[in-house]
Design a protein that fits this description.
Elements: H1 2-10, H2 17-33, H3 37-53, H4 55-60, H5 67-90, H6 94-124, H7 132-143, H8 171-189, H9 192-208, H10 214-229, H11 231-236, H12 243-252, H13 292-301, H14 303-322, H15 326-339, H16 346-366, E1 379-381, H17 430-450, H18 457-483, H19 488-491, H20 509-517, E2 524-531, E3 537-543, E4 550-555, H21 558-562, H22 571-589, H23 600-627, H24 641-658, H25 660-664, H26 676-683, H27 696-712, H28 724-741, E5 752-757, E6 777-780, H29 783-806, E7 820-823, E8 827-831, H30 838-848, E9 856-859, H31 865-874, E10 877-881, H32 892-896, E11 903-906, H33 925-931, E12 936-940, H34 946-960, H35 1000-1004, H36 1018-1025, E13 1039-1043, E14 1046-1049
Parallel strand pairs: 2-5, 5-6, 7-14, 8-9, 8-10, 10-11, 11-12
Antiparallel strand pairs: 1-4, 2-3, 3-4, 12-13
Helix pairs in contact: 1-2, 2-3, 2-5, 3-5, 5-6, 5-8, 6-7, 6-8, 8-9, 14-15, 14-16, 15-16, 16-17, 17-18, 22-23, 24-28, 27-28, 30-34, 34-36
Keywords: Chromosome partition, Hydrolase
InterPro entries: Peptidase_C50, SEPARIN_core_dom
Biased composition (Basic and acidic residues): 416-426
Length: 1052
């Protein structure tokens, strides 16, 4: 009714254009609040038409306008940008929402600066008004403040104390809601640092208000909430009485008694529908006491309150599910669904309903004699052989799965919402996408064990990878918007209504195979590691070009289900052990104890060596307990079809002789045939060297898995009836025969392994597990990051081929599709910028001085941010030898905004540490370099001592080919002294480590074997250089490589 009356008032002649625009904006915000996005866009379009065709408004955008006029116009623009941003977010266009939100904040800052400048000018000269250029300069400085809140200075000339003045009272609400909304958008995108920064700025604005009577304010707030909930207030929303209305009401209540004793009768009429717009000149009518119907209609329009109530019910239902009260949870979800009236809560409602159904399904599963072991069993996808394939089939032949539907999407948006235009929109945040894909992938893999022929592995693989790809896309789009130049006059244009909002495209599984898997170079493999929501299952997926994915679900407590005495070593225990080792190592690294005291130095070495042993044990347990027999999925061996066919025949004969199910049935045609990827897990364990390497426990893990696969597919065998020991002995013989017949050489091995890590797994040094010792390994945050680098590599190779066609004698060895080359003559380095690492400077200065004269250098002084930015954007190689990652000299935000970024070696303490932020996306300096386009970044996961990391850096430069061998630098380990033998801190990992021997690959392929010094990739150089560290694990395991293999070339 209020908006209806305002609309009538706006039609009166003489009403200003400003008032008309304010009405359209208020009406658009109301429509958006009730979920009518189509009409909201129409109202915003009407406001845009008025603003762009009214000379009064157009004049306010000119520099000749008065300050008061410009302030009014900027206020309208800021409010319009805010509502546009809310609308775009509601319809699923978070990118456009971010653009409008930034504009809203920018305009509010202009208003803030203008008011404060005007107030200051009045105090000084009375009438001096700042120009637009001065205001823009100020707000630009504010916009470029560091996102890192810890180092962000206060706004220079926009002081928060000034917001207490009366001139700012109307600005503070808009300023606060704009900053809060921008923080919410960055939270929606999963960007923690940006979200925190703007939330803190909004908090500063709120704190600037003088709340001296806080307790009284809380009492008033509670009283207001009670009033809002009262039936009288809700009924009163249907009308707002003006003075004229009050007079009419009072007159209608008068009783005029004539001399004859008769009374005048007042006429009572029914109230109109609250949504009906009544003109100002319409007759006033008295409402009847029928409140309930009116109240229900009004409540239905308060869909925001209903969304909150539904969200509370869903949260209570999820709590009930965790307490095993599924019946009560289902009832609460039914109540939530009955009041759910918008598309905002549609996805959470479906997720909660899905979890309730899954809880009930798992309960029923426990009573099934065949599938009751499914929750704690290892599952592979695929498990069974598909089609009749010949033993001599090509290695790159895909399994014959059913053709995946071309339009099958990773996210199927529910067709809900109050507008038809929003039915296909998905407005979920990155956290919601993670949750949806997690439950979808978990369910798909469970179903694959029971109905293997009806599903495709790509469905589960895409569920695992899409959240990380999606998060990367959103981050890169946010960065692109941030670095997009905007002219001052563009801020003063009325925001346009977007007819075709930009949204991220949801890929289907066929696109995922073609665009992310098939482009991987044939000599590489990508292995994805993910955790489930409860952190008790590890999902491992292997990707190789032209092959369907192979996925394994590994319950971390699966060993305990076979042996009740087995000590559980889950993810939380492993993470706690790693964190304690790192904390103790960091403390000892910076220990300021007096080493001249007797026993101090030997005690320090004893602590360091004890921590080195604990980290070694942790890595062994990660391999033996978490991966177990399935560590063969990380093996770089190349598929040998003929030899694998021989091993299949031998293994099937072993199963036929030892499994009761096959001894009873002689019908071979009904027996289950395992997928070739499962057989590759066996051969991936390597050769036991006639018992020199213990493979018994690994084989036992695989055999239990095979028995489960057979049971889920109709071949039931009781564990206690199977002689697993006999099967292990015979399988070892078959593996020896396979490896003795293998003719693979180093060149025929896969050259590189890419680890695609879940955001909770970046802290672990996976590359230093025994099974990956000496291998070329790097890590990326997502398959999207890998795809970007593969495409850049292809583009370089295309240029090299074009150059080769034009030149004679061109270096043909550079034309390799699996390699990216850097110009060795193009580089820059920073050495000891703090000036306190004199020992590091002494060790590294000689090899650095041999670099080409074209390199730029900064030694012994702190560089400016501009200097580092120029080095990163104009060279191929960037070396940093100092404290930390160099973030104290250049911000991550600055790096992300670069169009080109060099390959970087950040040889400082914790330069590669990835900080986790819960539901938000992780952050680290190497990830910022990757976001800027760097092909590779070498960094350390935790603090390291300077002598070991200096020795590592010199060795890495030699192996990579940056400089020749340095005879004055000792390559051998530092000799142990008697004083270093001390007590060892007891490891918190199970005692299982004592029975584990280093993997066979570490013996057969010593570090550096098969490659000349200087011919290695960066990742190979890092693997070889770990041996240069005296503390092989505590210091040697810290350096890792983010990105892909990069090689040096002297060619320009």
């Amino acid at each position: 009714m209020t908006l209806a009356k305002a609309q009538d008032a706006a039609k009166i002649d003489g009403v200003s254009t400003e008032a008309k625009l304010q009405w359209h904006l208020a009406y658009a915000e109301y429509l958006l609040g009730i979920g009518s996005t189509t009409k909201c866009r129409e109202s915003l379009g009407a406001a845009e038409f008025i603003a762009n065709n009214d000379q009064e408004m157009l004049g306010l955008a000119q520099s000749s306008a008065t300050m008061a006029g410009r302030l009014k116009f900027n206020t309208l623009l800021a409010d319009a940008s805010y509502i546009h941003s809310m609308l775009e977010l509601a319809v699923g266009s978070a990118n456009d929402a971010l653009v409008h939100a930034r504009r809203c904040v920018k305009l509010n800052q202009r208003i803030w600066a203008s008011i404060e400048h005007r107030a200051y000018a009045k105090q000084r000269t009375r009438g001096v008004v700042p120009t637009d250029k001065e205001v823009d300069s100020l707000t630009d400085r504010v916009a470029n403040v560091a996102v890192n809140s810890a180092s962000a200075p206060s706004v220079v000339s926009m002081t928060h104390n000034s917001l207490r003045g009366a001139a700012f009272w109307s600005l503070v609400p808009s300023l606060f809601r704009g900053l809060s909304h921008l923080s919410h958008l960055f939270s929606h995108e999963g960007l923690f640092q940006d979200s925190t920064y703007y939330a803190e700025q909004a908090q500063k604005v709120a704190d600037a208000r003088d709340w001296k009577r806080e307790d009284k304010a809380y009492d008033q707030a509670e009283a207001v909430l009670q009033l809002l909930s009262s039936s009288a207030f809700i009924h009163g929303l249907n009308r707002i009485d003006s003075t004229e209305d009050d007079l009419i009401k009072q007159m209608s209540d008068l009783n005029v008694e004539d001399r004859s004793g008769r009374k005048k009768q007042t006429k009572v009429t029914k109230v109109k529908d609250p949504t009906t717009i009544v003109s100002r000149g319409a007759s006033r009518k008295q409402t009847t006491p029928v409140v309930s119907a009116t109240r229900n209609k009004t409540i239905e329009e308060c869909w925001g309150l209903m969304e909150i109530q539904a969200d509370i019910l869903r949260r209570r239902a999820l709590t009930m599910l965790r307490r095993d009260k599924s019946t009560a949870a289902v009832e609460l979800l039914k109540r939530a669904e009955s009041i759910q009236n918008g598309h905002v809560g549609a996805v959470p409602q479906q997720l909660a309903g899905f979890r309730a159904l899954m809880t009930q399904a798992m309960k029923e599963l426990q009573s099934d004699i065949t599938y009751n072991v499914l929750p704690e069993s290892t599952i592979s996808f695929p498990s069974l052989a598909r089609g009749k394939r010949r033993p001599s089939e090509p290695a790159n032949t895909r399994p014959s799965f059913p053709s995946p539907p071309q339009k099958s999407r990773i996210i199927s948006p529910r067709k809900t919402g109050r507008d038809k235009s929003s039915k296909e929109d998905f407005t979920g945040s990155t956290a919601v996408v993670h949750e949806i894909c997690s439950v979808l992938g978990h369910t798909t893999i469970l179903m694959s064990a029971a109905t293997p022929s009806s599903l495709h592995p790509l469905t589960a693989a895409l569920s695992m990878e899409y959240p990380r790809i999606h998060a990367l896309q959103r981050e890169l789009l946010a960065v692109q918007h941030d670095k997009r130049p905007v002219r001052s006059e563009d801020w003063l244009k009325w925001p346009a209504s977007t007819q075709a909002p930009s949204r991220l495209v949801h890929m289907n599984i066929s696109q995922f195979q073609e665009d992310f898997i098939d482009i991987i170079p044939s000599s590489w493999s990508a292995v994805s590691l993910s955790l489930n929501e409860t952190r008790d299952e590890l999902y491992v997926a292997r990707y190789h070009t032209s092959q369907s994915p192979f996925i394994i679900r590994l319950p971390m407590a699966r060993h305990k289900s076979r042996d009740m005495d087995e000590e559980v070593f889950d993810f939380d225990q492993g993470k706690a052990e790693l964190q304690e080792i790192i904390e103790l190592s960091n403390f000892s690294t910076h220990d300021a104890r007096d080493m001249s005291v007797k026993g101090a130095k030997s005690g320090w070495w004893a602590e360091r060596e004890a921590l080195d042993g604990r980290l070694r044990d942790l890595l062994i347990n990660m391999e033996n307990i978490w991966l177990g027999g399935f560590k063969g999925i990380l093996s770089p061996h190349v598929r040998q079809p003929n030899l694998l066919a021989r091993f299949r025949k031998s293994f099937e004969n072993i199963l036929n002789r030892n499994l009761p199910s096959r001894q009873k049935s002689k019908n071979a045609s009904k027996r289950v045939a395992l997928d070739s990827s499962i057989l590759e897990l066996f051969v991936g364990l390597g050769n036991d060297k006639d018992g020199e390497i213990d493979l018994d426990e690994s084989l036992m893990d695989l055999l239990y898995f095979v028995v489960d696969v057979l049971q889920f597919n109709g071949e039931g065998n009781a564990y206690d009836e199977v002689d697993f020991d006999a099967i292990v002995v015979e399988t070892l013989d078959a593996l020896r025969a396979y490896h003795e017949a293998t003719t693979a050489t180093t060149d025929e091995m896969l050259q590189h392994t890419i680890l695609v890590l879940d955001k909770r797994l970046h802290a672990f040094p996976w590359e230093s597990m025994p099974c990956m010792d000496g291998l070329s390994v790097s890590r990326v945050p997502s398959m999207g990051a890998l795809r970007d680098r593969v495409l850049a590599q292809r583009a370089q190779q295309q240029l090299l081929r074009q150059d080769a066609a034009k030149q004679n004698g061109f270096n043909q060895s550079m034309q390799q599709d699996d390699r990216f080359f850097l110009d060795r003559t193009s580089g820059a380095y920073i050495l000891n910028p703090s000036g306190d690492l004199t020992a590091t400077q002494t060790v590294l200065d000689p090899p650095l001085s041999t670099l080409p004269t074209s390199w730029s250098s900064t030694t012994g002084r702190p560089p400016t941010e501009a200097e580092i930015a120029a080095s990163l954007s104009s060279t191929d190689i960037f070396l940093y030898f100092g404290h930390g990652s160099g973030a104290q000299y250049i911000r991550s935000r600055t790096i992300k905004k670069m169009d080109k970024c060099a390959v970087a070696l950040l040889m400082g303490c914790s330069s590669g540490t990835v900080t986790e932020y819960g539901d938000f996306e992780p952050a680290s300096v190497p990830l910022a370099y990757l976001a800027a386009g760097s092909m590779a970044v070498a960094a350390t996961l935790w603090d390291v001592t300077d002598k070991d990391i200096d020795r590592f850096s010199v060795r890495l430069g030699e192996e990579w080919g940056l400089w020749s061998a340095q005879p004055e630098i000792k390559k051998s380990r530092m000799p142990k002294t008697a004083g270093k033998k001390g007590r060892e801190a007891p490891p918190k990992t199970p005692a299982k480590t004592s029975t584990t021997v280093r993997s066979e690959r570490g013996r057969d392929r010593p570090v550096g074997a098969g490659k000349a010094v200087g011919a290695a990739s960066l990742s190979e150089g890092v693997a070889r250089s770990r041996e240069a560290c005296y503390l092989r694990y505590l210091n040697g395991a810290a350096p890792v490589v983010y990105g892909v293999p990069v090689y040096l070339s002297s060619e320009g």
